[in-house]
Every structure is written in structure tokens, then in C-alpha cells.
Amino acid sequence: MQPFLEVTNLTKTYGQGELAVDALRGVTFHVAPGEMLFMVGPSGSGKSTLLSILGCVLSPTTGSVRLMGQELSTTPEKELPILRRKYIGFVFQTHNLIEAISAEANVALPLLFRGVAPREANAQAGALLKSVGLQNKRHRRPRDLSGGEKQRVAVARALAGRPPILLADEPTASLDAENGRGVMDTLSDLAHRGGHAVVVVTHDNRIFEYADRLLHIEDGALVERDDHE
Amino acid sequence: MTKPDPPMRSDADPDEADRSQAAPVAGPVALRPAYSWRAMAYVGIAMLLQDKLKFAGILVGVIVAVVLSNQQTATFLGLLGKNTMLARHAGADIWIAPPRTEILQAGGTIPDSVLWTARSTPGVAWAAPILMGGGNLNLPTGGSQPVTIIGVELPAGRGGPWNVVGGDVRRLSQPDAMVFEDSEREHLGGLNLGSVRELNGHRVQAVAFTSGLLPFGPSYAFTSFDTAREIMHVENHRVSYVLVGVRPGVEPEAVADGLRQRLQSERVMTRAQVERSTFKYLVTRTPIGLTMGTSALFGVLVGFIVVSLTLFSAVVDRTREFGTLKAIGATNRDLARLLVTQAVTVALVGWLIGQTLVIFIIQGIRSPRLPLGLPLWMVPLTLGAMVLLCVGASTLALLRVRKVEPGMVFRG
Q: Residue A209: closest CA among chain B residues belongs to which residue?
């Protein structure tokens, strides 16, 4: 099966001349449908840069990124938001919900961007919140939810519109162990039963067990390492 | 480097069957037209309402702009109305005035032969002279008050008076009879019907009262043409203005052209030209236009700055949320829609409150001396102006939003 994400010889350099910093150096990997890929490494190793490029919010310096078969380096910048709408769901380190609107409205937003009619979008958002156990809190604002609940709403928002690729940035960082496991169970389920390609950036070695593959990044490059280290 | 192991964790949760049924099936999807206007409008208004202090601040800006601009415009229109009331109510289609006349006021005179020239001009239905000049009315308690004397030819009474609220205007034909302004009775020494006063050393008697006939200068006092001539000591065969009415179906402008050809020395103006000339005079030859225009502009400027800075500050406060919206697929155009919705919302709400306030303020301070004019067209014009102001003021916020990087949401 064709990979949902193919990254070949990817580099990203910030700055120019003597001030240039190589954030990514010749990174190559792919993510298949139904696969849960973890990217791990120390702070400043390039994980967030890589995730930003995969999420179509940052352009690479050189190399190739094919997202659902589409080459990002040749895609006009103004079309990147459309690609994000179509193909990518994000789970952020902090929930990043819109504080002024309800949990259900937060989840419905990507659906509205994708052209789902408002009534249908609300119905789907309600179903997604139910799937993460928040059916009774659908009308609450983020400030009225606990940290774990907010992150579950963020997961539900990432799933809205069934994007084939889910990018999760430290999804358990702001959660206790129990809530962290709940979120990871949901993501694992989406990969292994829903067929989504799930990419997780994390420091949290308690959740490594959920990974199908681990990519270790150090100084902007992938390094060989025993996955059980 | 990587190891394509099977899943490291097996799922044996009994609820899993249900969840897997609900789990989405991955794959590319076709995009239908986005409901981004509706989504962005909803989010924009929710953001506005959530930050109540900012919302209140921004409304104050719009309200200040609405109230100041309306109040100043109403005052200016009121003054304009005072200065054009004679032209509007005299019943003449055309005014023949001394040369270089810009505004109808006491001053120069023209020969009464103009009257005959006018009456013999094609298209003219009637022509009537009036005399206009200043006078000082002696008060019973001592001192005097100025009035603007208007002498009209009777019995036609072309040129006034109008808005008669007391007495009998037909008594103007009696010797020394005069019609005064009702709201000035106290200033004129407690005038009543039948009161006798001395005007420019000439005995006059109040036979009727008008309401609201207060020009920018002293109030109007109407009398017969002959009495006016005596009071003002105007030499024979001179008149202040000649009023002309045109025949039904004839364009006043065409008749005015004919009069201009025959009257080389006098200024011939249609009623509309008199009003335009008065407007131009007030704006360019007096400080009124500059003062009021500056005040109105100041109000609009304050509103613009308050709205602009508040919207900008709201975007700065919510930079991360805007970054999130971009990350989940909102384009700059979508976010512009959000800001435009916010701008239009504050314009509508601010305008509604401000316009209501203006109506109460104008009702509260309106008087014959200060006849504030708020024509109906000002209402939609103000609404349109406020929408433009607020949308324009959102430009700064929009420029900020365009610079928000969606990638920021990956930096915890």
C-alpha cells in the first residue's frame, strides 16, 4: 500500500551564512496507513521542525515530502491550508482549543472548513465527543473542562473529517498517567483499526509501548538505536 | 534505523468493538465548498462576547464617533437651516439679489426697476419685492434688542411671515403692524398681542407671532413693505431682493437664465442656488464649517483609533488561537472574514446605541434657537460610515493575523 507520508533527504536550515543552523539533515522515512510512528529525541533535536513540515506549516529547505502522494515542495503556499484541511488532524502539546466556543463547536470547526453543513457538523462533532467520552460536556467551554478533558476534545477535533494523517505533538505532556493512557488508547485505536497514519512526537517513555516504530532524532538526523533503550 | 514491528500493544478492551465501529476510515476526501463564513462569523462573535471589557471599549469608540459626528452634523445642518429658512419658506423660485450676494441677509439694495424687468420676462408668473434690514427694538425696561426687519408687499405677503402661531397676520395691512417671533417675546420685553414698542424710533404694534423663525442673526420681524421702508429709512425705488415665481411647468433655471441676460448688474439665483451659496458661505467664509467639521472628524478619528487598536490588541491576545485556526485549515481569507464579522458587529451594535443616544440628545437640546437637524438620510449614512470605519480599522488586525505562523502551535 502506498505510504501516506514519504520523506526523502529532508533538510531544514534556519538563518544564512555563519548564522545558519541545520535543524534537519537528510531525514528519510515513510509512514504507512494504519501505522503508529513515534519520533523521539532530546529537546532541540528537530522533532518539532519535522512535525511542522509534515503538517504543512513549514517549508523544507531541500528534499521531498509526499503527502498522500502529493509533493509538498511543488505545492503553492496558498494551497497548504487546503492540504491541512483534507489530510491532516493535529493533536497539540497544549490542547489549543478556541476558548470562546464550546467543545462541540471546537470539534465542528474543521468540519465546517471542509464543507460539512453546520447541522451535520454539529452532529458529527457530538458523535466524536461521545467517542472520547465527553458526550455530556459537549456544550461546555474549554475553561470549564479539566486538562484531560481538554486534550480529549483536541483529539476529537483532530479526528473531525476523518483526516488520513494524525500528527500528535507531545499529546500526553499535559496529562496525568491515566488521562495520558486514555488519549494514547484512542490514537492507537485510530491507527490500528481506523487505518490512520499516526505520527507522535514525544519525550514520554511511558507511552513508547504504543509505537509500531520509533524514530530517534538527534541533531536533526535520524539515528540507529535499539528501540527498547 | 526503524523496525516495522507489529503493534506493541494489543487491545483487548471489551468496548473496543463499539469504538472501532465508530472509528473513521482513513483516506483522501473530496472537499466541498467550506462554510467558513459561518464558522468564522460564529467564532468571531463568540470571541468578541467573551472579552467583555474589550467589547465595551470598542463600542465606546464607535459610540463616540457616532455621537460626535451626528451631533456636529446636526448642529451644522441646523445652522444651515437657519440661514436658508427664508429662501425655503418665502415661496419664490428665483431670487434677484444685489451683486456679489452670497447669503440672504440685511445689506445692499437694488433698484425697483428690476421688479418690472422680472415681471416682463418670459416664464415669470409673479415678482414681488422685499426689504430686509436691521432694527433695534426699545424695551420697556430700558435698552434694546436687535431684530431683522422684513417688509413684504401686501396682501400677497410673498416672503412671509409663515408658521404663525398667534394673532392675525391679516392685520399686517394696518399701519405700524408687525409680526414678531414667539420664542423671543421675553427677550423683546414681554411682548404680547397688541403690545406697542419703538423700533428705530418708529412706533410698532405686535399683531401676530411666528414660531421658530430665528435665523443665525437677530429674529425676524415682519411688517408691510411701506412700514419697513419707513422704519429702515430706505430710499424710494430701492428694494433688498426681488422674489420671482415661475409659471407651472417652466424650469426655474431656464427663467433664471433669461433674467440673467436682462439683469447684468444683479445676482440671479434659483432657490437651490441660494441654498448652495449659503452652504458654501458657511463652510468657506465662516469658522463654522471648519470648527464643526473638525469636531466631527475628531470623533470619527477617535472611533477609528479605538476600534483599530482594540481589534489589534484582541488579535495579539489570541495569537495562539489564530495560529491554531490556521493549523487546522483556516486561510488568511477565512481569518479576514472573522475580523470583518467582528468589525461589522461592533459597527452595528455601536451604531445602534450611538444613534439612539443621538436621538435623545437632539430631542433634549433642540429649541427654536438651536434647531438641530437630523435628517433621515443621516441614519443609514452613519451606519454605512461606521461599517466602513470599523472594517477599515480592522486592517491593522488583519495585517497582524496574516503574520501569525501556524507552526507556533507546535512550540509548547
A: B8
From the list A94, A109, A213, the residue facing B3 with the nearest CB is A213
Domains of chain A with bracketed CATH: 5-223 (3.40.50.300)
Rg (CA), chain B: 34
Locate the domains of chain B by residue range: 36-78+288-410, 99-265
- Beta-carbon separation of B27 and A214 below 8 A: no
In the three-class reduction of DSSP (H, G, I as helix; E, B as strand; rest coil), residue A177 is classed as helix
* Spatial separation of the C-alpha atoms in residues A213 and A203, rounded to whole Å: 15
Contact A188 B50 (CB under 8 A): no
Counting one residue from chain A and one from chain B, the pairs whose CB atoms sit within 8 A come to 193
Which residue in A has a C-alpha nearest to residue B40's C-alpha?
Answer: A109
Please indicate whether, in this complex, the C-beta atoms of A92 and B1 are within 8 angstroms of each other: no
CA distance A81 to B405: 12
d(CA B83, CA B78): 9
Q: Give the tens place of pLDDT for each residue, B168-212.
A: 989 999 989 999 999 999 999 899 999 999 999 999 999 999 998
List, for residues A31-68, the tens digit of each pLDDT value. 999 999 999 988 888 888 898 899 888 888 999 999 98
Q: What angle do CA A64, A25, A27 make, to 5 degrees?
A: 50
Residues in chain B with CB shorter than 8 Å from the CB of A195 are: 25-27
Search chain B and give the residue with CA nearest A167.
Answer: B410
